[in-house]
Amino acid sequence: MTRLIEVLPGTVGREMPSRTFRLKHQLAGHSLFKLERLAKLAASLPAESTEFNGPVAPGQDPKLTPSNGLSAEETVRRIEECQSWMVIKNVEQDPEYKALLDACLDQVADQTGGVMGGARRRQAFIFVTSPNNVTPFHMDPEYNFLLQIRGSKRMSLFDHKDRRFVSEEDLEMYPGKHRNLPYRESFEAKATQQHLEPGDSIFVPLFDPHWVQNGPEVSVSFSITWHTDTSENLVKLSYVNAGLRKLGFPQRPAGTSKALDAIKVAAYDVARPLYDVVKKFVGDRRKAVALFFGRTAVAN
Ligand SMILES: [Fe+2]
């Protein structure tokens, strides 16, 4: 059987790696990534499943992100000239994309001897970007393989444990926080740069900040993400530590104390369903956050 995605020998050991590595894939030219099909996909999904904007910079202020004045479907159809960045989120809502996501992750799991941990909470995203556009500096709270389908891009990646590039506070997450992180041009000399052409793929480690410069053509990328027990616990700790910081008790990073981490994860598991009930009851995320963390939480 032809593999859709191939892990290169020697790139993955007994544990999920903490550094980026390269893979190859066979999805360039796949019919699910033609612009016509992507325009239909964008039109078929709920509005909250698409996000798009005009030209931005690596250190983009989220409050000043420009609109492109188009619908999601129009953005795909006019991507060649509309100078836009677009993500179609949770494309696994469509059964054809779900099947492709599952096939790719299952194939990687088969080649990596258990390090994918069952590859739970699978999600997929498709990035459609105009020539020369930029994805601002941010991090993602999941393991990710980015598959370049069409066009080229360069991703600049940084170690999330290196405090020269991102603070502990900026890594912590809370509901409603914008994903963009502060970026300075001086970072670039220390970046791990991954150049992607159709057929190339890279692993993007959990939490590692990155920004993307697209090449001189339309770019289409397929992002397939998943979680293991480890990543789920690290995300929970990130939320708990952010909440404690909001309450005036900044925390040391996850991994400093296994016992304390376990208590925090247990606390998250108790508090999260309560938060969801409160959010449903008050009908508003900002009010729910305020009830949990006090007024300062919603001022950020
Ligand atoms: Fe990302």
UniProtKB/TrEMBL annotation:
Transmembrane segments: none annotated. Residues 83-243 form the JmjC domain. SMART domains: JmjC. Residues 51-70 are annotated as: Disordered. It comes from the Bacteria. PANTHER family: HYPOXIA-INDUCIBLE FACTOR 1 ALPHA INHIBITOR-RELATED (PTHR12461), HYPOXIA-INDUCIBLE FACTOR 1-ALPHA INHIBITOR (PTHR12461:SF105). This is Transcriptional regulator. The lineage of its organism: Bacteria, Pseudomonadati, Pseudomonadota, Alphaproteobacteria, Hyphomicrobiales.
